[in-house]
Specification:
Length: 449
């Protein structure tokens, strides 16, 4: 295989790597760089692939501007019995990318032309900079700066990647002025982002039988909650024949996971609209805000070319193993569903995954519950029963006989607030020393239910 407009070979790690990466970042399709293969396609391998991988990450992090974090993947592979590295580079949304050392000049900016990285003409540099997308979650200042990230710390700790004191800067959760940005707001313990999973009796939205709301918490937690909920809905269909027992799920589990993750990572949160998940008798619809990124055609989208809309989120989701390689999601979905499953509009992207059979085991639909009376966990039920007026945290915790504040908050209080069963008496100052809690009308109904 020879070099192309999207493939570059390097026999070894060299000083020109950043130049090649920048050229792909500035190219509308991105590209792939193989380290350990020469220009003729012969495999030489690397003596220390793991060490080279760490060096590459450090160099790309420190030598390229704007930040390329979240826009590249480094994958270790074996070819002809030898270790090589594969660097997958996405087309960046903040062109022109350049060498930090030389700035936005012809010495610092490069573009892919054919199979080579060439200096970018100054006119092109100026035009790209003038049209650079500024309305992104990494640039927008969060309207709240009193944000906490305990949930994020827990998720990173679970992956044995503890966050240090500089994590806000390292994860690009701050603006150039040092303020927390909108990406930080989305990943914080508390926010106003609500993600809905709705279930309908038939094939239209006329008869709602179940409405679940996940949110007001770290987007990672909301994502995991949606994954768990829809996985429960994805029941197994069993068919027994004289020769064998066949099992199939309503929706392919691999494609389903990719579709859900894609909806979160590529959603246009600058519109303050969260992804939406709707289950009908014959299908699952996943709707995310924002259509195709500028410069990406439908054919390129289906071929797996990646222009991450939210590179800060992509970085965190990859750290937590929710996302694998850049550009792998859509091809995985297309292995099981055709292109007609994707519906594009000017403002939204919708994936429609048909179910293998009726979502309900029989045509008898489960008992309909009013959307305002959700099913609650035993812990939340205990908390609701503890209320007789307004109470502070200590009073509620003592009433329940709980000594662990963290356990009370995570398993009792936060889920009740997230489901709009309990509200704060001082919502604008969630950490006020005078803060108390009370049941909402929804909470009062749920306690009676």
């Amino acid at each position: 295989m020879t070099e192309t407009n999207r493939i570059e070979y390097k026999r070894e790690l060299s000083d020109g790597l950043e130049k090649e990466v920048i050229a792909f970042l500035n190219y509308r399709e991105g590209g792939i760089i193989y380290i350990g293969i020469d220009k003729e396609g012969n495999t030489y391998g690397l003596a220390d692939a793991d060490g080279d991988q760490l060096k590459i990450k450090d160099r790309l992090k420190n030598n390229i501007r704007p930040s390329a974090l979240g826009l590249f993947d480094i994958v270790s592979e074996e070819r002809d019995g030898k270790n090589i590295l594969k660097i997958i580079v996405a087309s960046g949304p903040e062109k022109p990318y350049h060498l930090k050392k030389y700035g936005m000049s012809e010495r610092g900016c490069f573009i892919r032309l054919g199979s080579a990285a060439e200096p970018m003409p100054q006119k092109m540099i100026d035009e790209l900079f003038a049209s650079r997308t500024r309305n992104s979650i990494g640039i927008i200042k969060a309207h709240r700066q009193d944000l906490n990230f305990e949930q994020l710390r827990i998720y990173y700790q679970e992956k044995q990647k503890p966050l240090n004191k500089q994590f806000r800067k390292n994860l690009e959760l701050t603006t150039t002025n040092g303020d927390l940005n909108y990406a930080a707001y989305l990943l914080a313990d508390e926010n106003n982002v609500s993600v809905k999973v709705a279930k309908y009796k038939g094939e239209t939205r006329v008869d709602l039988i179940e409405s679940n709301e996940y949110g007001y918490c770290s987007l990672i937690k909301a994502t995991k909650s949606v994954l768990d909920k829809i996985n429960l809905e994805n029941r197994t269909i069993t068919q027994i024949t004289p020769k064998e027992r066949k099992e199939q799920r309503l929706w392919n589990a691999i494609a389903l996971r990719e579709a859900i993750i894609n909806a979160f990572v590529h959603n246009d949160f600058t519109r303050e609209i969260a992804p939406k998940f709707e289950i009908f008798r014959d299908r699952l619809e996943i709707t995310s805000a924002g259509s195709l990124p500028d410069g990406l055609s439908k054919s390129e989208f289906f071929e797996g070319y990646s222009i991450p809309r939210n590179k800060e989120l992509m970085r965190v989701y990859k750290d937590l193993d929710l996302v694998e390689q850049l550009g792998s999601g859509i091809p995985r979905i297309l292995e099981h569903y055709d292109k007609d499953s994707f519906h594009f509009s000017d403002n939204f992207l919708r994936m429609v995954l048909p179910s293998a059979e009726s979502v309900y085991a029989t045509e008898q639909v489960p008992t309909k519950y009013p959307a305002s009376i959700p099913q609650v966990t035993p812990q939340v039920r205990e908390l609701l029963n503890a209320f007789n007026s307004e109470h502070n945290r200590t009073e509620l915790q003592n009433h329940l006989g709980l000594t662990d504040r963290k356990n009370f908050r995570i398993n009792y209080l936060v889920p009740a607030i997230e489901n709009d069963l309990v509200e704060l008496t001082i919502p604008d100052k969630p950490r006020s020393s005078k803060q108390q809690y009370r049941l909402t009308e929804k909470g009062k109904k749920a306690r009676k239910g």
